[in-house]
């Protein structure tokens, strides 16, 4: 990889978009125009940041771009050209795919950036000359394309987009190759729909060899810059396969591992080796193959499973081997013919099992006889019915070590994550139990939702062999979760400032979507030829390893690779903020980075300025990306506006909540600049079903979107205000690092889960009986609640104190997340109990001095707001508990620092060996919005400095209940003294709560109360309960 | 054509073993108690009679061995699932030889015999709960990880999850299957804890039937032709409260079986037989 170009920054961004979005050009132009200087800085984002950050402009400049991207996406997609062939295949599903492309774009960013940079730069330059306005550019490109040769324009977004992208890229390439810089416009690359391309240019064609499931080879020519998707579609077309979302292409990376070809990225950049050899494989094993629409799909699944079984990858008993083998014979050869002389001959040429013997073959034949009359399709179906019950069906295994260094296997499957030691299952984490999935270096972490009896979330860490495998595992988890649990793929990460590292998200259709799509398949069952199991006779190479890792690329486990940095650079400016915000990551990265301390400080200072201005900015009207800029640069006002970026879909249980945390840093003496920080990051997650998205409603048994619309209007707004004053001695490095490498990444499964329905049932299932009791209780409380004075329970809790330690790796994210979780859970519990109808207002001041322990609530989920009011509890205890448990937080070698106010991290994994809590708080369907304003990243408190709970009060008014909890933490570490105050305000009410107002008030109060401190972070978490459906 | 994992509770054969006189004095027990040998033998005869006459199983009765005081508890010597029999390596040294006779009997029934030869492995059948969809293996004083691994190897089709047994002798000292997808569980804290673990570890859903007495949670479920769901459970004499709970199972043919004496040496209902489905040959 080469990342050296001076103009890289620009390029990167462009590249990002180029992957999937037409907008790139926009950005590119923008940037080019805006800052020629920026180019020079390219590689190190940090540097950039520093420089630019100084005046604040630099950053702001980026912001808009970011925003623009999204816009442009939407605009452009419709106009793209769709290749005819693909149309046919994808007609059914197009709409659904809409979201996907966006997602992909992110994923691609990294690689693409690198690759395309130079070319793009050139292009863009060219373009920029011709076109001054960013907006116009995209249009231009399209025009070019059109003129080039593909007249057909379709409105179908996804495919169109993708194709469009491809075209563009190809175009670009063409330009580069053919003309070098000059050509800018259409001259070189003309290309039409991929499937029937007519290329006039010098575009190189490459021959791809794809090994199909029946063992045959499929060869096709692909333009050298084609994306994975192109090849995949060609293969599917060849196979006449419509239900293709369960499948994927694999290739062998330079480490001899099988990786999934990312459909959204250029093939060339993935394979690296110039070995255009692929295999067509099942990527997601449908839990119930009988729900597949077409026999041909089942047939292909059978082929894969035969191979899995024969290779031993899918272990099964002698009898099962025989049974499956007999169905294979029936499907391939039809009825057993007693007269046939050959049976034992041909059968022994086939491989049914890793250790096949005569006895087994005889058994197979014997069973084969009993299948007389069964059609091939029936035999396949029977095969699948048996195979799907195997315990390892669809489980993708990864080697790992647990926190004690013991060799284990992690299995990713449709239901969650399984932990095996040898052959024994020693733990299991269902998707609904997992709050966050992340990896860092070679560590892989999952954050677990606390069980019924547990107060705190826990993080479990595993050690993978290397960074690559950690990332691969993470990707597989993200993909599997998305595919099996979501209604629609998570929208692009662009909007997510908060996440660092890989933006990878699953880009395809989810199972729900693909089911819907296949339900619409309207074609006569395609006839296909069974190939007599060519494949069965040859044993397969290893299991397809799922991972889209770019093989060559990331070798350095900890080291910072230039590339990585580049990536980060390339990532949108928002990214930068995000980096700053999360100390934990940044710290780590810092270690790896070469930056000098000065740089860091400067950088930080600039950021803080930005943040400050942001915070001061008035609440603008509707959240428009561009307004960001305004706010940042020229913010006169006082209030913080919450932007709506629909990043996430609805978390199961969590109602819409907005957490706002504002933390201020005071600085004692030396580091003045650094401490002036205010929050810049805003993230709002709206889980609400977007109309635009493909709603898989009808078909998906689990979660009809319709229900969401019926949601009750219970809205809770939780405002967390973190005020932190920090006396920092000399070093603040930790704060500043902005590395955005692929070394780590996070994924919040639950937050993004739109399939709330599904999840809910699941959990209920697990603890059904147990929960009955709880439910009863809740019911009781419901009754009692009304009696209680407060119809609208609003809780304002200001609990968590967080200790910041600069050196620590802990990130605020964790805290936030945990907080959210806590609160969410509280809410869950509360929700059921609450039925009030007034407009909640956040009025901490007014609050009577009830004390509520959020944690407790969370635990039980039973706490009725009313109760709280009546019986204020002292919080001191709660915090103590926390403190005590923290020490437990040890996972693997690198303890993921999870920072929690109320949350304690424990090594559950170990704990679970003996004890596992199954119960969970009853889940309520909800919508969640989370908005985070972050200023300083300074807190690294993860490591378990026990916080002190200072105050907690609950205020109840007619319509709402407000609980405020305050945690204050002081930390002395190496000459560094920090005081951090974290307030959590929970407002619960029946109707819509103006969280903007609440937030504004909370911030205002915080400032008033602690004039000497600054607001560092504001997180607004808004939960809206959806109408409860019967599950 | 029974497919994989079909027919939970279908049995055609049962292997039992007589009670040696040595049981009264020498059988292992977790609490001091005097066993009325004659009464124990009568109980056992009643048990076998139910299997043979009332339920019509083909009963293979192995002779008692005086040198093996615990030999009546045949369950610990073998785990049979489908047509595969895993001959265990009991955790108690004094019981290791119990497997010999068992192996012979199972061989005669044409089962595929898998032996646990690893000297580091121990496994008592009483720690093995087969739910029809998967195995749970209690890690107890008698069963270790290695034993569980070997079991997992022997029954590759099924998930095998381990469950710590903190109290009680065996996993099945406080739980058992009461039907397809129905786990009968004692109400003690350790029992409930174990259940939670099982629920967490499983991809499948289980209903649970909680009985007040842990020991009463050990019952024998069968699904027999012409009889449907059959449940051998404790008598009202022994555990009156728990018996009431069982009586609520309307779909089951309920057969109370007395187990007053054997329980004194930690013997429960499932302990006294190994059930086999000879038609399991698919």
UniProtKB/TrEMBL annotation, chain A:
Region: Disordered, residue numbers: 1-190, 551-576, 692-852
A GO cellular-component term linked to this record: plasma membrane
SUPFAM superfamilies listed in its UniProt record: PH domain-like (SSF50729), Second domain of FERM (SSF47031), Ubiquitin-like (SSF54236)
Keyword annotations from UniProtKB, A to Z: Actin-binding, Cytoplasm, Cytoskeleton, Phosphoprotein
Residue stretches making up the FERM domain: 206-488
One GO MF term: structural molecule activity
InterPro entries, per the entry: Band_4.1_C, Band_41_domain, Ez/rad/moesin-like, FA, FERM/acyl-CoA-bd_prot_sf, FERM_2, FERM_central, FERM_CS
Residue ranges, compositional bias (Low complexity): 720-738
Compositionally biased intervals (Basic and acidic residues): 40-58, 113-128, 137-171, 708-719, 770-780, 801-830
One biological process term in Gene Ontology: actomyosin structure organization
Cellular localization per UniProt: Cytoplasm, Cytoskeleton
Pfam families: 4_1_CTD (PF05902), FA (PF08736), FERM_C (PF09380), FERM_M (PF00373), FERM_N (PF09379), SAB (PF04382)
PANTHER family, alphabetized: 4.1 G PROTEIN, BAND 4.1-LIKE PROTEIN 3
Protein name: Band 4.1-like protein 2 isoform X2
Native source species: Lates calcarifer
Gene: epb41l2
Automatic annotation (TrEMBL), chain B:
PANTHER family, A to Z: DIMETHYLARGININE DIMETHYLAMINOHYDROLASE, N(G),N(G)-DIMETHYLARGININE DIMETHYLAMINOHYDROLASE 1
Annotated GO MF terms: amino acid binding; dimethylargininase activity
Keyword entries, A-Z: Hydrolase
A Gene Ontology cellular-component term: mitochondrion
Native source species: Lates calcarifer (Barramundi)
Sequence positions that bind substrate: 28, 70, 75-76, 95, 142, 265
Descriptive protein name: Dimethylarginine dimethylaminohydrolase 1
Gene3D superfamilies reported for this sequence: L-arginine/glycine Amidinotransferase, Chain A
SUPFAM superfamilies membership: Pentein (SSF55909)
């Amino acid at each position: 990889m080469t990342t050296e170009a001076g103009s890289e920054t620009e390029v990167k961004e462009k590249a990002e978009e180029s992957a999937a979005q037409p907008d790139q050009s926009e950005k590119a132009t923008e940037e080019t125009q805006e800052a020629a200087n920026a180019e020079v800085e390219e590689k190190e984002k940090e540097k950039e940041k520093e420089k630019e950050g100084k005046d604040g402009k630099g950053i702001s400049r980026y912001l808009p771009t970011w925003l623009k991207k999204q816009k442009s996406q939407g605009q452009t997609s419709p106009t793209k050209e769709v290749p005819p062939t693909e149309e046919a295949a994808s007609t059914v599903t197009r709409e659904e795919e809409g979201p996907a492309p966006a997602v992909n774009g992110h994923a691609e960013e990294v690689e693409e950036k690198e690759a395309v940079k130079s070319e793009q730069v050139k292009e863009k330059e060219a373009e920029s000359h011709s076109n001054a306005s960013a907006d116009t550019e995209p249009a231009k490109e399209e025009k070019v394309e059109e003129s080039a040769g593909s007249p057909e324009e379709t409105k179908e977004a996804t495919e169109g987009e993708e194709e469009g992208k491809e075209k563009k890229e190809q175009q670009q390439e063409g330009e580069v190759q053919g003309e070098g810089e000059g050509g800018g416009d259409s001259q070189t690359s003309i290309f039409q729909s991929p499937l029937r391309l007519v290329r006039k240019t010098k575009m190189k064609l490459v021959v791809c060899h794809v090994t199909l499931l029946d063992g045959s080879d499929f060869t096709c020519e692909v333009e050298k810059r084609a994306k994975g998707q192109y090849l995949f579609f060609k293969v599917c077309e060849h196979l006449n396969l419509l239900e293709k979302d369960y499948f994927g292409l694999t290739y062998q990376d330079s480490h001899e591992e099988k990786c999934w070809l990312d459909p959204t990225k250029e093939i060339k950049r993935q394979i690296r080796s110039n070995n255009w050899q692929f295999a067509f494989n099942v990527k997601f094993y449908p839990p119930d193959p009988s729900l597949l629409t077409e026999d041909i799909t089942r047939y292909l699944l059978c082929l894969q499973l035969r191979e899995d079984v024969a290779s031993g990858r899918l272990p099964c008993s002698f009898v099962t081997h025989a049974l499956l083998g007999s169905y294979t014979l029936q499907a391939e050869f039809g009825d057993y013919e007693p007269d046939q002389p050959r049976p034992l001959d041909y059968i022994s040429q086939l491989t049914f099992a890793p250790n096949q013997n005569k006895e087994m073959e005889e058994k197979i034949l014997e069973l084969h006889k009993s299948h007389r009359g069964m059609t091939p399709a029936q035999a396949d179906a029977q095969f699948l019915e048996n195979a799907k019950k195997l315990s390892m069906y669809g489980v993708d295994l990864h080697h790992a070590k647990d926190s004690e260094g013991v060799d284990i296997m992690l299995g990713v499957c449709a239901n969650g994550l399984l932990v095996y030691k040898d052959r024994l299952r020693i733990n299991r984490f269902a998707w609904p139990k997992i709050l966050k999935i992340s990896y860092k270096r070679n560590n892989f972490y999952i954050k677990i939702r606390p069980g019924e009896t547990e107060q705190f979330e826990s993080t479990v860490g595993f050690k993978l062999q290397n960074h690559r495998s950690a990332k691969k595992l993470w990707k597989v988890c993200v993909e599997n979760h998305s595919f099996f649990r979501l209604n629609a793929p998570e929208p692009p990460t662009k909007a997510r400032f908060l996440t660092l590292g890989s933006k990878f998200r699953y880009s395809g259709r989810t199972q729900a979507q693909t089911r819907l799509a296949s339900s619409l398949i309207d074609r006569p069952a395609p006839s296909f030829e069974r190939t007599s199991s060519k494949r069965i006779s040859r044993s397969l190479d290893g299991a397809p390893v799922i991972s889209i890792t770019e093989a060559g690329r990331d070798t350095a486990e900890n080291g910072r690779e230039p590339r990585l940095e580049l990536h980060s650079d390339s990532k949108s400016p928002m990214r930068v903020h995000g980096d700053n915000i999360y100390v934990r990551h940044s710290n780590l990265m810092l270690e790896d980075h070469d930056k000098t301390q000065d740089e860091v400080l400067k950088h930080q200072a600039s950021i803080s300025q930005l943040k400050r201005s942001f915070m001061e900015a008035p609440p603008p009207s509707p959240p428009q990306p561009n307004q960001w800029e305004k706010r940042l640069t020229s913010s006169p006002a006082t209030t913080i506006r919450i932007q709506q970026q629909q990043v996430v879909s609805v978390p199961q249980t969590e109602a819409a909540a907005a957490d706002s945390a504002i933390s201020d840093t005071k600085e004692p003496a030396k580091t003045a600049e650094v401490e002036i920080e205010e929050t810049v990051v805003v993230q709002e997650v709206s889980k609400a079903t977007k109309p635009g998205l493909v709603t898989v409603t009808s078909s998906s048994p689990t979660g009809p979107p319709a229900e969401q619309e019926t949601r009750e209007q219970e809205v809770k707004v939780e405002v967390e205000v973190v005020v932190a004053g920090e006396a920092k001695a000399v070093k603040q490095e930790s704060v500043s690092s902005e590395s955005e490498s692929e070394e780590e990444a996070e994924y919040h499964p639950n937050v993004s889960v739109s399939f709330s329905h599904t999840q809910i049932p699941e959990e209920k299932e697990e603890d059904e009986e147990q929960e009955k009791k709880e439910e009863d209780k809740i019911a009781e409380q419901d009754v009692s609640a009304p009696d209680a004075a407060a119809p609208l329970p609003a809780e304002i809790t200001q609990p968590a104190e967080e200790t910041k330690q600069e050196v620590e790796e802990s990130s605020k994210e964790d805290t936030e997340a945990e907080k959210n979780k806590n609160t969410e859970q509280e809410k869950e519990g509360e929700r059921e109990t609450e039925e009030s109808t007034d407009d909640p207002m956040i009025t901490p001041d007014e609050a009577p001095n009830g004390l509520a322990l959020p944690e407790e609530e969370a635990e039980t989920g039973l706490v009725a707001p009313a109760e709280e009011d009546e019986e204020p509890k002292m919080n001191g205890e709660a915090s103590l508990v926390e403190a005590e448990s923290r020490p437990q937080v040890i996972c693997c070698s690198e303890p993921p620092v999870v920072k929690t106010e109320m949350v304690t991290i424990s090594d559950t994994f170990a704990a679970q060996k003996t004890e596992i809590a199954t119960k969970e708080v009853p889940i309520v369907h909800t919508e969640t919005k989370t908005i985070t304003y972050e200023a300083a990243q300074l807190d690294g408190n993860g490591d378990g400095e026990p916080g002190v709970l200072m105050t907690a009060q609950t205020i109840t008014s007619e319509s709402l209940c407000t609980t405020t909890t305050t945690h204050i933490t002081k930390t002395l570490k190496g000459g560094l003294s920090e005081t951090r105050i974290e307030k959590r305000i929970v407002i619960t009410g029946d109707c819509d709560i103006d969280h903007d107002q609440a937030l504004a008030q909370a911030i205002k109060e915080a400032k008033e109360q602690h004039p000497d401190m600054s607001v560092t972070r504001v997180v607004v978490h808004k939960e809206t309960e959806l109408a409860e459906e019967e599950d | 054509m029974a497919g994989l994992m079909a027919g939970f509770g279908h049995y055609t054969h049962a292997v039992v073993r007589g009670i040696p006189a040595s049981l009264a004095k020498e059988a292992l027990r977790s609490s001091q108690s005097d066993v009325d040998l004659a009464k124990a033998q009568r109980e056992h005869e009643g048990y076998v009679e139910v299997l043979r006459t009332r339920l019509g199983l083909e009963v293979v009765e192995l002779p008692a061995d005086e040198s093996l005081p615990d030999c009546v508890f045949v369950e610990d010597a073998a785990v049979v699932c489908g047509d595969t029999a895993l001959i265990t390596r009991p955790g108690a040294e004094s019981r290791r030889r119990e497997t010999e006779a068992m192996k012979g009997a199972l061989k005669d029934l044409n089962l595929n015999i898998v032996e646990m030869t690893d000297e580091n492995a121990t496994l008592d059948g009483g720690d093995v709960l087969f739910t029809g969809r998967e195995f749970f293996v209690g890690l107890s004083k008698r069963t270790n990880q290695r034993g569980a691994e070997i079991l997992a190897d022997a029954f590759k089709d099924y998930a095998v999850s381990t469950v710590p047994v903190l109290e009680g002798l065996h996993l099945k000292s406080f739980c058992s299957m009461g039907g397809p997808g129905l786990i009968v569980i004692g109400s003690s804290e350790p029992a409930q804890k174990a259940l939670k673990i099982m629920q967490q570890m499983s991809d499948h859903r289980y209903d649970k039937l909680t009985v007040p007495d842990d020991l009463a949670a050990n019952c024998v479920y069968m699904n027999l032709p012409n009889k449907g769901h059959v449940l051998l459970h404790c008598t009202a004499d022994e555990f009156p409260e728990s018996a009431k709970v069982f009586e609520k199972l309307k779909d089951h043919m309920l057969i109370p079986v007395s187990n007053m004496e054997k329980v004194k040496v930690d013997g429960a209902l499932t302990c006294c037989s190994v059930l086999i489905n000879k038609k399991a040959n698919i």
